[in-house]
Amino acid sequence: MDQRDIRVSDTDRQAAADRLRVAHDEGRLTLAEYDERVASAYAAVTYGDLAELFVDLPDQPAMAPHAPASTPAPTSASPAPSVRAPQMRPTAVSPGGFASLPGALRAAWSVWFVAVSINLVIWLLVSIGNGDLEYFWPMWVAGPWGAVLFASSAATLAGRRGRQLDMPGGREEISDGRRQDRRRSKRSGAD
What we know:
By secondary structure, the chain is mainly α. The chain has six helices and no strands.
């Protein structure tokens, strides 16, 4: 069986999404490309599906401009102890709020904002024209539609945060301690 046909795990999908975020942060992907590719990464079934997302991206992130090209050889007679530099890896934490919503939800919020704004302007012009405040009917446009969008957005963000906490390697500063606590509680519950 070809490696490209092997099914991927949630950890593989999250690693691909993290790598895409780094590419976006470096300016290699536009926001639209990033959104599209992250959605494809989470929908990927095989390694071949994931590989297609990176065909036009370099294998390694860009080097920092201040990093030396090579390290000088040690001049002492005794070899220096081997010390590995700590590995910097991107975290699975994404910024909260509007920017972290999927493109479709951001578009829906934008359409809602425009529709509510137009309705408010019309209501205001009618009220000024009549010389009296009219019944505030724009609330029937803003309220129900906004409530549905808010619930969808909250569920999406909560689902993403839940996936990040459950993913191995995701949000390590929080989950390492919790993971150990969960193991202890499972052991004590199994006794």
